[in-house]
């Protein structure tokens, strides 16, 4: 899931996703946003870590849980 208010369309999440589940797409004139294709998303959390603004998040896990899994 991507929070449209926080997303700067920088593409970091798109680059980080090895499942190609995220694409930065034009959503309105002059406005781009990262869009997640839910069918391709495995919920691994890499996009969450890569996102500099915290716009990318997983609906199943809290940020603290993801960071703990990565640290282990």
From TrEMBL:
Query: Which ranges does the record mark as transmembrane?
Result: none
What PROSITE patterns does its record include? 4FE4S_FER_1, 4FE4S_FER_2
For this protein, the record's SUPFAM superfamilies field holds: 4Fe-4S ferredoxins (SSF54862)
Pfam families noted in UniProt? Fer4_7
Can you give the residue ranges of the 4Fe-4S ferredoxin-type domain?
1-27, 32-61
Protein name (database record):
4Fe-4S ferredoxin-type domain-containing protein
- Species the sequence originates in: marine sediment metagenome
